[in-house]
Amino acid sequence: MARRIKILHIISSWESGVGNELATLAARLADNEMEMEQEICVLAGANSRKIPPVSTTTLGMRWSFDISTYLGIRCIIRRFRPDVIHAWDTTAQLYGTLHHGKQRIFAEKRDADVSGMMQQYLDKKTHTFIAHRKTDDCPKTVVIPPAAIPASCSAPMSAEALLAKLEIPSEIPSGDYYPIFESQYDRERLNFKPVPPRSTPFLIAVVLPLCSEHRILDALWVFETMNHVHLNFHAFFIGDGKDRERCLRYRDRWKLFSRVHFPGNQYDWLLPGCDALLHLSPSAEHSGTILSAMSCGVPVIALETPESREYISDGTTGIIIPCKGADEAASRFYRRTAAKRLLHLLENEELRRSIQRAAKERVDKEYDFDTAVEKRVDVYRVQTEP
């Protein structure tokens, strides 16, 4: 019988993407046959999730480096004595590696490219901090293969039932629409023509932390364009983050308060009922959201990254927006292209059905949930080998 492995998961917050993936994985690993003992340490945000029987501690981090958070993690490590510390993002990696000891520490990466500036900075700092001990104690950057990312979802709900559960009126009050455009986008929006009326609203999801680096405002611009062409839709920003209030201000300024909603982090019952997922984030940390949507048969429109290319065949299992960089011109391209391709997807029912079938077939064939969990367990066991 294999030795029981003790794992401490450290994550910045439960904000969508990675948080939902950790919750799914931890619940599965909690099964007795996995021979795993887990504890979860959440650095910031509210303690909004419970995963029995996994113990969860939220430390309430207030700054980039918070001494109380540092001491809280030290207490958890001394009490729990983990074999492996799994840092799910860069902030978690920084805090995890400060507590060097006998446990193995590894940081998760979703692709083979680990040359990012932030990653180089963290690797250098953490290596310097613990180099006076043993080199083997340095944090490992573990490349997680795509097939080891668990993707699961619940049964879909109808649009009427979903809106009723969220207490959102299905009928939007009629009235003249006076869009408030930013001057640099006026001419671009004039190319979008009104669409035919539809009785049942389209449901569109964005599952990301509400932070500017994930292009949340670009997504809001897309939905303002959907409103401009009088599309019958509701959009859900599933997640939370530091820019939530800013996003709410822009939503209200663009008169989207009856169309765009911010329900919070819990999305496993909401995503399967949506007609599309808009994913404009360049970050690899939230790529598991794409798999979750594909497993539910939700067509994905995603920014081109190594991860989205791994999962999506453009036009077959999803839609890819080419990457053009990170400047203002690129942002304008992403907004315009995302709006055009989202409208094309929603107006073409045959294309939606085709993508749904192809995406589900690919996930069922190549990204089986149980197989992904087994691969994660193999990663943990490798870290504990002498």
Summed up, what is this model?
The protein is of the alpha/beta class and 386 residues long.
Layout of strands and helices, then pairs:
Layout: E1 5-11, H1 18-29, E2 36-42, E3 55-58, H2 67-80, E4 84-87, H3 90-98, E5 104-109, H4 117-130, E6 140-143, H5 159-165, H6 186-189, E7 202-207, H7 216-228, E8 233-238, H8 244-253, E9 260-264, E10 276-279, H9 288-295, E11 300-303, H10 306-311, E12 319-321, H11 328-347, H12 349-366, H13 369-384
Parallel strand pairs: 1-2, 1-4, 2-3, 4-5, 5-6, 7-8, 7-10, 8-9, 10-11, 11-12
Helix pairs in contact: 3-4, 7-11
Task: Give structural notes.
By secondary structure, the chain is α/β, with parallel strands linked by helices. The protein folds into two domains: 163 residues, 3-Layer(aba) Sandwich (Rossmann fold); 208 residues, Rossmann fold, CATH 3.40.50. Helices cover 39% and strands 16% of the residues. The strands form two sheets. The protein has a six-stranded parallel beta sheet, with helices on both faces. Helix 8 links the parallel strand 8 and strand 9. Helix 3 runs parallel beside helix 4 and helix 7 crosses helix 11. The longest helix has 20 residues. The protein is globular and about 65 Å long.
Key structural traits:
alpha/beta; 12 strands; 6-stranded parallel β-sheet; 386 residues; 39% helix; Rossmann fold; globular
CATH H level of the largest domain: which superfamily?
Glycogen Phosphorylase B
CATH architecture of the largest domain: 3-Layer(aba) Sandwich
Main-sheet strand order equals: 3-2-1-4-5-6
- The strand count comes to 12
How big a fraction of the residues is strand?
15-25%
Mean pLDDT: 76
Order of helices and strands: EHEEHEHEHEHHEHEHEEHEHEHHH
Radius of gyration: 22 Å
Structural class: alpha/beta
Question: What is the C-level CATH assignment of the largest domain?
Answer: Alpha Beta
> pLDDT under 50 segments (min length 5)?
110-150, 175-185
